Amino acid sequence: MAAVEDAARLVIKIGSALLVDRGTGGLRADWLEALADDVARLRARGTDVILVSSGSIAMGRGMLGLPRTELTLEQSQAAAAVGQIRLAGAYGAALARHGLIAAQVLVTLEDSTDRRRYLNARATLEQLLKLGAVPIVNENDTVATDEIRYGDNDRLAAQVAATAGADQLILLSDVDGFYSGNPAQDASATRFDVIEAITPEIEAMAGDAGSGLSKGGMKTKLMAARTAMAAGCDMVITEGSCLRPVQALEQGAPCTWFRAMGTPQQKRKAWIGGMKPKGRLHVDAGAVRAMGRGSSLLPAGLARVEGRFGRGDPVEIVAPDGAVLGLGLCRYNAVDAGMIKGLRSEAIEPVLGYPARAALVHRDDMAF
Ligand code: GLU
Asked: How many Å apart are CA 280 and CA 214, to the nearest integer?
């Protein structure tokens, strides 16, 4: 059975209904304070924590005096712009009480569908976590229009978990798990403790009622589970309205776990290994030895570039004897890679005119 205590990197999704009082439209400050206690406890234990928080629209709506009825897209975008400042400020203050630094990260759907942007988002999250900050992620609702947006933070959170290589995702929701029917209408509906695979039967059980403030229903939660599981990340749905909901989960609060098969690292390598290469990097014997010890491929070890590829594209890595060692995502395009072959890191910037990335192919982006 999965346990939150085992998480190395945890993404926690916070729905609007938990953070914003439905009656007043104001922030539920006591809840946020207690969540910050949860986060501080996790960080003290050495767990990386990323929060994906909704609430910008719900909060901005109240501040702007917008109606309670369905908002137009333009009104939602304006509300998000106003609410997001308040939201980020509130997280910043709550975490600062524990000596933690909050970082605001606003993303759009294209940041996960475009591989270059996906790699940038991944690198930024990695850097923030390395520096000990707590990323607070939301969709950039102010610029995302209907055709190009997630619209719900369940799927966004799963994508963030996949991007960051998280091993667990907690959806703090207004329901305590996944039921065989809608518990509000069907007294015989039962909650699943664990779901190992999302079968057509499971899909048929998902109704789609949101809670009024939040966008996601059970269908979007299942979609999120699919994304998380495919990325090697366990996902859990639990009711989040109590103070310190993560602690409550650890102490046995009702929930439903969606179990991933494999780890984020295995899934990522399988994903990369299944790509069609766009070019080849011929490397020298020193690079072959270094990669054998688990190092990244550096420009210094590159002998020749073949093919036309962009930054982030998959390439084959080829040894001096012609053997294909594996596949990797190249952090430079073919032209720039050709210009820096054989160069040591400090010699790169004068040649390219922009600061160098240490690795040509990072070891996390290789599949052998
Ligand atoms: N991004 C939206 C917000 O912050 C929320 C989407 C959702 O409720 O899932 O208001």
From this structure: 47
